User: What shape does this take?
Amino acid sequence: MMYKNKRRSSNEKQLGDVIEKLLKAYNLDDKMKELDLVEAWPELMGKAVAHRTKSIQIKNQKLLLTIDSSVMREQLHIGKQVIIERVNQFMGKEVIRDVWFS
Assistant: This one.
């Protein structure tokens, strides 16, 4: 029995590309980025910061963090630029431009 070498036609897409387009079409791509960030937060910022972080959201290129320690909040505010750089590097593009704390 002889098998023909089947190649993908030029109109076939990679599954990842299709999923990415669907996420964008339904405005879910930002939410997925946010979930990735929440999962990576302890690695990006350390366990102490992650333990004090109660909420992480991204809205209008702002990272909104709820921190349950005023001392930690002040320390993070001082290092705001480092947070922006780490998050954007993790995401592979500029996702946030500012960080707000509450």
Q: What stands out?
A: The chain has five helices and three strands.
